[in-house]
Amino acid sequence: MAEHTGHPAPHPGHLHRTVTLWPMILFGLAYISPFIVLTTFGAFSEISGGTLAGSYLLTTVAMIFTALSYGKMSREHPVAGSAYSYARRSIGSRIGFMVGWAIMLDYFFLPMVVWLIGTAYLTAQFPTVPKWVFVLAFIVITTVLNIIGIKLATRVNVALLSFQVLVLVFFVVLSLRHVFATPGLGVTLEPFWNSASTVGAVVAGGAVAAYSFIGFDAVSTFAEEAVDPRRTVPRAIVLTAAIAGLIFVVVSYVVQLVHPGGSFANPDSAALDIARTIGGDLFGAIFLATVIIAQFTAGIPIQAAGSRLMYAMGRDGVLPRGVFGYLLPRLGTPVFNLLLTGLVGLLALFLNVETSTSFINFGAFTAFAFVNISVIALYLRQRHEVHRTVLGWVVQPLIGLVVILFLLTQLNKNALTIGVIWLVLGFCWLLYLTRFFRREPPEMTTLEESGEAALERPASSAET
Prior knowledge:
transmembrane; AA-permease/SLC12A_dom; Amino acid/polyamine transporter I; APC_superfamily; membrane
């Protein structure tokens, strides 16, 4: 869709430019969900060796450098807001295709991780119930709702976000009260670094902690609704990453004071045990209810978004049209795509939070790396036409790239193996689509663009 040109009357198919900076940041924080720092605390702290605050600090620095690159690219391309779009336009269509393929890994596994986290906490509360019962319940309920076609708003749900933030604040306050009231505990720097710490553990913790930041660039979806998008969107992206990082560092620091070290009876649901320790059974019940509500409210739109993206790619010929481009005639929903993500969700029966989040981070790190590369490529391509500083357009993205690649190498070996296999499959598919590079690859529809297209369809069109 084209941008407004200053005419006061809205043109049919155009969005009103009314969204300002802070509403955009709130949307980004809601998309990230700050509560994730608690639901993943035990698993990530165990990997970091009890220095999760240090790991989050490292990852926050990496995310801010990458967010600056996202900001630059969103300023250059204020409509399309994805790593795929940036790589395609700055580097080339084939590289762009591979970046888009890597990002698809996130959409396949994100619902599974959401369901797995919810299952871990329910299993801890009800240990006599088999794990598969909760996994299937999450998958079936979420998938059925999406097939029926319930349309849930993808914009910030202020009430839910406020409730999660309130519980988060209570968790921090109760944690501090517990620390000051318990002999042997106190305010120290050990959550950042202690006598048993190793650089490898802190970095490994940072590699998985990056999962918490996924979605900080989601504010780019407001590019056509933002007031002064070339200025507002980049600032919102950077501030969202910085504020989220600050929340993650502070919360993980305080909670790590309550439970020094990285050893837990059940790392996947450790925060529930800590909630009971600091606030008793009542607060533990409130915390568990918040976790389950958060997992459902996250799982439904995440599965719907992934299925919509796969449908758009099937419709455009990037994926087999007969399967991925199929809509259920009566309901108009991409039923095969929803069932596929449901089947992938069954892998939660065999994985833990660490391994599953590593799969997600492989795709995310690939995207982040190529956003940084796109900034450098754009500088080199236009250096004789547009004046830009080497510090801002080469040094800064290069630092972001190096840190991201370093974190990538620290991911779980299984995640790296599956990630490489996924890229090889994507390369083989690219060879097929391009007839061994004799033609251009088909252009992918990004999630943002598929959403814009949905807005332009008549109201009678069936949507997920």
